[in-house]
Write a structure and sequence with these properties.
mainly alpha
């Protein structure tokens, strides 16, 4: 029964990620913690996220522009490593609340159409990558900063999903390398990993199919709604 629940949870989260390009952790992590310890969830989900991002990147390969987003990707890796390292030294509850308030405020402005269009200059990409990577490494809240950046950049739905998928593929690979160096992977986690992969691939496939049927306006509203929810979850979880 636990394996069935694990598959169902990650299926829902992966379906959401297949639709918007992010958000699987928002659904999966809180629910999986009811069944598994975080020490198991975090490293295994890194593998799942990598596989899922690889699948979605292949489906969106014609819209991938790696060279254009190189500063964002490199700074995202550096930010993730910094977040992992500083995890033991920072007052994370204050940092998490501050990040959550900023994310919710900007997302609400975007929701009501109040936003400044910007170009994806190398400098702005680097700042966004550092912020999103650090949030990912320290707070597991890497999605909202880069989502807001890409939304203000005015990308169409396909390019938006492709760029997000590429960014999270790089971060997932960084986490896998880091967790491998820490010897966090154990043989007894293999059945759990298999269940997660089954749910993730099937959910990502369905989400990708659903995304093609959404209008641009509905897609952007759904993306911003997920950002607002993620910010709210992060804010209130800081008090626990």
């Amino acid at each position: 029964m636990d394996y069935f629940l694990i598959i169902s949870i990650i299926f829902i989260g992966a379906c959401l990620q297949g639709i918007t390009g992010f958000g699987s952790g928002l659904i999966a992590v809180p629910l999986l913690t009811l069944l598994l310890p975080l020490s198991v969830i975090t490293p295994t989900l890194s593998v799942v996220n990598f596989v899922m991002a690889t699948y979605l990147a292949w489906m969106l390969r014609h819209s991938l522009h790696i060279k254009h987003w190189r500063p964002l990707l490199i700074s995202g890796v550096l930010g993730t490593l910094c977040g992992n390292y500083l995890l033991a030294y920072l007052r994370l509850d204050w940092l998490q609340m501050g990040m959550a308030i900023m994310v919710i405020a900007v997302a609400l402005l975007f929701w009501f159409g109040i936003q400044l269009r910007h170009k994806s200059t190398p400098k702005l990409q680097s700042v966004t990558g550092i912020l999103a990577g650090f949030s990912n490494g320290a707070l597991t809240l890497g999605g909202p900063p880069v989502v807001l950046f890409l939304t203000g950049n005015g990308l169409d739905r396909i390019a938006f999903r492709a760029t997000l998928t590429l960014f999270f593929w790089v971060l997932a690979l960084t986490n896998i390398v880091s967790f491998t160096a820490q010897q966090r992977y154990q043989l007894e986690h293999v059945p759990i990993l298999i269940c997660l992969l089954i749910g993730a691939i099937s959910g990502a496939w369905l989400g990708h199919r659903i995304s093609d049927r959404l209008s641009e306006q509905l897609f952007r509203k759904l993306s911003l709604l997920l950002v607002i929810i993620a910010g709210g979850v992060a804010f209130f979880s800081a008090f626990q």
